[in-house]
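Co-fold these.
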Amino acid sequence: MINVTLPDGTINEYAEGITCAEVITDALGRKHGCLAAFVDGVEKDMSTKLSSSCSVEGILSVSEEGIHILRHSAAHLLAQAVTELYPGALPTIGPAIERGFYYDFKMDPITEADLKAIQKKMQFLAKQNAVVERIELNEEDLKSHFEHNPYKLEIINDKLEDGAGSTIYKQGEWYDLCLGPHVPNLSRLMFVKLTSVSSAYWRGDQEREQLVRIYGLVEPTKDALQATLKNIEEAKKRDHRKLGKDLQLFHIDEEVGQGLILWTPRGSIIRQELQDFISFHLRRQGYSQVFTPHVGKLDLYRTSGHFPYYQESQYPPLVEKDLMRKLADEGCSCSELANLMKSGDIDGYMLKPMNCPHHVKIYSSQARSYRDLPLRLAEFGTVYRWEQSGEISGMTRVRGFTQDDAHLFVTEEQIAEEVLGCIELVQIIFDKLGMTDYRVRVGLRDPDSDKYVGQSEGWDKAEDACRSAAQSLGVEWTEEEGEAAFYGPKIDFVVRDVIGREWQLGTVQVDYNLPERFDLLYKGNDGEMHRPVMIHRAPFGSMERFVGVLIEHFAGKFPTWLTPTQCHIITISEKHKQYAQEVADLLKEKEIRVLVDDGDDTIGKKIRTHRKMQPAYMVILGEGEAENRTVSLRARNGDQVSDLPLDQFVDDLMTEISNKEPQPCLVPSQQQSED
RNA sequence: GCCACCAUGGCUUAGCGGUAUAGCACCUCAUUGGUAAUGAGGAGGUCGCGAGUUCAAUUCUCGCUGGUGGCUCCA
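Predicted complex below.
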């Protein structure tokens, strides 16, 4: 007999060999809803036989572990369906992921249209409700089970020690190499939805074959699945690429170039407001504003190390016409030209991929003493990077972007305090914008990689400085090896958007390397020359990416201070044109952004039209308002307030804007939102 | 860069081997209307670009450009 401890503390005695399923059924009844169990805290199948005293706790499909098992099992079901429909298809790997599951197959490409049939097959198989069976096999048997699948054999050879066996999971005649656990039977997997098909490299290696990857969702109930699908639909409506077009915030034109953002008047207002906001804080923190050109000589980037290191992701260099002609006359080939550039035998210009070298040159334009430090140089600097064409997307991944950049030249003793100042700035901004869902990542070098430059002593010090700064932040932070820049460690602020994607926005980087490469010096109070340390930082990261994320964060409903047109004035009839103009002039005088619609559409029609542009307020003006010098307001959610005295409205609105209130607040919320 | 899919007036979209729908937006006229579409009329497209097949191509084929979903990459 063995003793089994249940979550509520009771201890039951059972015969040895009893299964988890039997224990849980005994404790909770037949409709326990568990799909696996923790045995002494370790995830096990329901069919696991208990051989000694232990604790047992059921895993429900709504728990984090439960949904993970559900997804993983659904991936197996997908593989079964695909291999039955496409006999030549070879399953490779198929894990559960954050929002569902996928499975990679070696097979001929399929299209989204094919997913319907596969999903139907999955649901058919789920209805058959085969039992999922765990089978332990020795190495030889294991290999013979997968002798026609080189991918599985590769995993067996790589992951298992010589001579070690492993397990397969079998449902009906189909089986897969897997450690489990899995659902006890397939009927648990009724509520699946295949979402997309794409491709992936085998084991994530660009050099190896491309596989067909099928993504899917699974939920424990029909309602849960419908809710998940609805969430995805809602998220799509927030997509900054769609909203950017609808709200006329930016435009990308193929004749201008891929990944190059044209900021339209309305989007430019948002960007300008953000820049003003940040500039205000920069002045407070003692930064100096600078401007530098968009190009620089190749030699500059040879010295900085950017040219040789990041050649693949730079726009092609610009070479002078006469030199090009001369080289062409001499029969110089393209590859020879590239070599000459690489070796430094010919020079040219480059679109700047970053602002640091220019700022470094401002530092070194004068002899510096310790009294000049910290020297903080800030610039909204536009940089150009040749991102891979397939990677470019909307505003979040582009080829030309403006960093809210700054470089701080500091003494070693000043690092900790200055890094902290940078971090505080990031926090002020995130706080003001209500971006609370972010994590802090301290990026360290990968000890096994040789991509990093500089002395390891400097690295150690810089890494320590980042750690202690992150520590003092009072926010959850993680260290990640291999996430450092090639010149130094960094602290990144990674923001999670509404769809759960993560975006690296703010960044602070400590750099011992560039001062070395450019031989930067200052005279200390000891009369000796010393080397300063550089801190790179950009609280927004790039204006493009930040605004892109912000559009989705607010779903286009910006706080009043950021809203491109804050008030849309709508007249009831032609008779109120004059009063509308008066109100508009008054608001404009106070630098409030306003638009007047005194056209002859009906009031309902106008409201419908203007709602699409998401003004902070619609200001409705008719008979009563004109007579009493009042306004009526309509908020984005349809709430209204009537007969607000005009002067009070203007005052309140100005206060709201200068306070940078997170949402419009002049119309008290009366009901649940109609949006 | 790789794989798959996609590309029709400003936007959303129908369609097909014989140069093309519809709605919104736009313009004109009438309407003077109180919080999610007043009515009538009008104008606007060499169907992303280039080549090929064909008597004929927006429709089929290839290339290019751009987009979408992923992979790889991201100073």
